Amino acid sequence: MSDTPAERLLAAVEPLAHADRLRTVARTAHALAATGELPSLIAELAERGRYERRLAALAALAGRHTPHLTARLADPDAVVRRYAHRAIRRLPVPDEAVAQAVAAAPTAVRAELVAAVLRSGRTALAERLVAALSRSHGPRAAAPLLPLCSAAFVTAELPAYAHAVDFTAALGHRHPQAVLDAVEPQLADRTAWSRHVHALAAAARHLPLRVLDLLERRPGGPPLPRPLRDRLADLAAADPTRTARLLAVARSRRDTALRPAVARRLAAADPSALADLVAQQPGHGPVLLRALPPARRPALHDSVYADLYRRVGYYAEALALLPAADRYPRARAEIHRLRRNQDGDLADWLAAPGPPPVPTPADLLSLVALLPPAEARPRLLAETRLPEPTERAYGWEELIGNAARSGDPAAVSELLPTLARRLRNEQDPVRWGPLSALAELAPVLHDGHAADLHRLTEEALTTRDCSEHTRAGLTDTAVAVLARHPSGTALAAWATRTLERTGAPRITLPRGRERAVLDALRPLLRDSAATPDAALLLTVADALGPRARRVLAEPLARALRTGTDEARCRALDHLVPLDPATALDLLTRDPSAARSAPVRAVLTAVRTDLLALLPGDLTEADTATADRWTPRQQQDAASRLAATAADPDRPAEERAAALRAAAPLGDVGTALLRRWAADPDTALAETALAALPHTADPASVLPDLLALAGHDRARVALYAADRPARHTPADALAPALRAIVLGPAAAKVTSRKQAVRLAARHLPAETAAELLLAAHLAPEQHADVRTVTTAETTDRIGDTRADEAAVATGARWALLADTVERGSTLQRLRVLDPEPHRLPPADRSRYAALVVRMLDLGDSIAEHVARGRLVGLAEHAPEAVADLARAVLAPDDPDDPDRPDRWKSAAHGLVAIAVGAAPHPTGGCAPGSVLAGLLTTLTGAVRADEQAGEHARERLDELLDRLGSLWDAPNLPEVRRAVAAILLPAPALRAQAARQLLATVAVTDPEIGDTLLAVAALLPDRPALAADLAATLRHSLGTSLPADAPALDAARRLTAEGTLAAGLFAVALTGAGSAAHWPEPWRALLRELRHHPAADVRDRAHAVRPPRPAQE
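Request: output the structure for the sequence above.
Response:
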């Protein structure tokens, strides 16, 4: 007989299912709390095993016994911790207790506590923890708490974190103003956009106009990062015109189509902005037209597509969106333009009987389909008689689309009999496309069409080559009809009969009309439930997804009773999440159902009182919820798994799977795995070692794994130790790792390397830094270990606040300095890994000194990489930048094989610094800058035609080639103009100067005319160079230009100049006329150029052939 309250409670809950057990404990705790007996119950349970300690924590939470849970905020047991962490939100757990728990907690528990504090909403506690964590573990550990802090706190603290952490969406959502204030100074560096893009996107929801300001000043322009593209609707709602202009500029070939929500908001933009957007990205035209009211569509269409050198696919799609009265004349005009080289009247061509001698081009046929049905039908029917099956299918699809677009039931009545008659004798590849396209007709159909549809279905389904594609096409059409036409109509009867006959191989329910389709299908679904495979019912349920659980519960339950094993399993997948009792009902009728995955999931996670019914071998999926089982159940499961693992007749994989499944079984599972970890069978022993970290108390197995540091199984044991190390408090973890890193040489190198990694990841910053430095400086330390210590240190060198020096910083910099002086090439390269912007501003000069030191060590590989890293540190090492210029000027040394690589890498670094963000005189190319001085020296050498002239030319060519490769640098045009000014005094370098000037030309630049006239003036006696530069100019213009580009005025000025070079540039600018769709001013300019004084200009102008103007 049970004597104590704890024993009575344990006896009462032993036979219960998991949920009932928890409810019973909670009710008991609540009752005892009222009588004052709860503390004694909790104390008695807490003195017992793991299972009882979990029940004690639950009782404390239910009875609001705060002291018990406060003492267990960092408990080794995960379930106990979860109850204690809930108390942070529900009960008055003192801030001091939480702070102490966070300070002492291991990595994994600290993360759980941070998440619990975030859920609690306790702002003052969060601010206290941020300050403590940033000092002990660095800003990265503290940053997740920032969203919970007050606005004033975040505004004050955020600048100290900006270099070390990437701001999150949660932070941008809670504190948009503070995030934008902290990020804005960094955004001149394009990497800051990628690091903080999620926070910027979240801030756009609250401060869209400010984010628009930032985007308009964004260096590098296109494309918009994906998270910001996802916020276009917010930007467009705030200012549609500016958003449209931003999209016109920030374009990319990888841009996805505009979402309808964005298009609806952009519809309010200024029409000229929309026209520019569509001109730049024709793919956006249809979705924008669809978002406009029909009356506004013709104006946008004409402003973009009139006289367009068309991408006809986009054009036909856009034209189809116009009202019929506007669509028909424009379609006729475009067809006339496309047929301009063909004889005969348009009406005669459209009405020509019989198949055409050659297939009509797809672009032309898509325009024909936009005409009135009576006008388009003869030509489209002719296309369906072509010999090529794909062309016939396309003709049918366009014919169906034409009838659907017209909205005329008479056109459909004329089409369906022809379609039924003709498709009967067609090949299946021709049939299934048109049968899918019939779904477009659903809004136009009426009951009078049902007979033709029945005939069409009969002909399609009874052919010998009827395929899955044909049945799927008919299914799509039937579903579209059910979505539009109510039950009881002839059309609905046809659709349900068709779905019954096709078997519905797949179904896509129309969004927003699912209910109408389901209502029409209910009788059919009830009938399907009675069939063995329940194919239609399960297909519809799969299409509905989670919504099927309630809507189709009744027929799915019937399928459980009558279906095959596969059908029952699929039905259970839908029903069990709604009502686990469904699985038990099936189990009562058929005990063999316990082998199915949904039933096993119910038995192992919900009805744990019936766990004994679980047949066969236990799997990892079965034991995944073993923390819901009683100790007796865990012991029984462990015995079954032990028998499987010990059975030599079993395949090795089954035995290994049994060991993996034992991990969640509490203490008995841990004991089983410990026994097998010492087994002579290597495969099974290593499986047990790999599973040990996933037991109920990972920290308890860390000594078992670290004890193998000198064993052959260290490669498994030490790499499995990461999870246990994450759960081990620092005061226990540090000496264990120190013993491996600094202990006897018996530990394998791989063990020491992994121990270093574990120390860096899971110890407080100061402790980890000191241990890594000691490991690095240890006598006779292996080079691979030093490489790891260097890599782990560089990963964390910037993880300090910008406004205060961390204690760990000194040890970290000492380690890096030692690596620079006496490390290997590989170790030195690890020192060069950090990006300068990831360091606190105060530490960048120190890092620059290390990088500069590498330039003097004679390590050619590290020296080359260090010059590249110097680009981001130029303002902190101006003398080193000057040394780069001297390295470029140094004469070649035949005895130094690395000399060419050295001066070239110096040249590349110097150019990158010049176009970067470094201030004058280190950066830029203004007079007095380092690059300007170097170019002046080289230009002087060329002008003097000294012996060093060839040497200088080689250097100049390398510098200019590198300058051309940095095409996306924000201040590149300014540097190019300065470079050209330095080169111009040397006649031998005029071609290079002209190329630099020409490269600054932007078609949107108001000074394009002045720039091109200046370049042309340099080429009076250089016809070949002028032709070459004109070709370069034409190529650089691209094919898609803003409508207001000032290229036309520039071309007129160049034409009036009358010189060969200016005329060739003017012809090149007619590319802008092509992109502007050849309006009359461009045509007039081209006619003038065809009478230019220079014959070469006239020839080039005649070679440009704009399309003939469109005619109505």
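The radius of gyration is 38 Å.
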